[in-house]
């Protein structure tokens, strides 16, 4: 079985800017993994392992999201998950958006029909920049965090989401995420 997730691909202009910024951050933050330029995305649901029968049922159920119209997302703030001095994940947040929330909830409900167990944590839409802090002796100080924030690149105000994607994970590859099916937003609601 392979790992899968459902997400939103970010626009290439944002990916390019974030990738360039990573080249500066790599000297300041000891992350084991930096997201490849072609892998930047916003996860709606991470499924993990799923068998072919469930995958087929999931694909059929996800057709319902095509009833939504394309919508616009904006970035919010830079954030982390985990210990503030050695954060396990560095991410760029996405502003709260009612359409994104509705779609994410619908995707979760669809995934539950094939055995997915809903996350207990609140959904935080974000784009992962780096993960897996590696140097236990190195810490991120308040001054270091302020330097990172002050060097944050400018990103266009918003980008339009016109599809939701089912991704397959290829851990040993670059890029590691393959879109295996897209669900275009057509606005038929």
Spell out the key features of this protein.
26% helix; alpha+beta; Cyclic Phosphodiesterase, Chain: A; 9 strands; globular; 189 residues; four-stranded antiparallel β-sheet; five-stranded antiparallel β-sheet
Could you explain how this protein is built, in words?
The longest helix is centred in the middle third of the chain and has 15 residues, at 98-112. Strand 8 and strand 9 (177-184) form a beta hairpin. By secondary structure, the chain is α+β, with helices and mostly antiparallel strands. The protein has a single domain (2-184), classed as Alpha-Beta Complex (Cyclic Phosphodiesterase, Chain: A), CATH 3.90.1140.10. The termini are far apart. The chain has a five-stranded antiparallel β-sheet with strand order 2-6-5-4-7, with helices on one face. It has a four-stranded antiparallel β-sheet with strand order 3-1-8-9, covered by helices on one side. Helices cover 26% and strands 35% of the residues. The radius of gyration is 17 Å and the shape is globular.
Per-chain topology:
Layout: E1 2-9, H1 12-25, E2 31-34, E3 41-50, H2 52-62, E4 71-81, E5 89-94, H3 98-112, E6 126-133, H4 142-150, E7 158-161, E8 163-169, E9 177-184
Antiparallel strand pairs: 1-3, 1-8, 2-6, 4-5, 4-7, 5-6, 8-9
Count of domain modules: 1
Which structural class best describes the helix and strand composition?
alpha+beta
Report helical residue fraction.
25-40%
Question: Within the CATH hierarchy, at the fold level, what is the topology?
Answer: Cyclic Phosphodiesterase, Chain: A
Radius of gyration, whole Å: 17 Å
Mean pLDDT across the residues is 92
- Tell me the fraction of residues in β-strands, as a range: 25-35%
Q: Flag low-confidence runs.
A: none
Given this structure, which CATH class is correct?
A: Alpha Beta
Span from first to last CA? 35 Å
Our count of helices gives: 4
Describe the main β-sheet briefly.
Answer: 5 strands, antiparallel
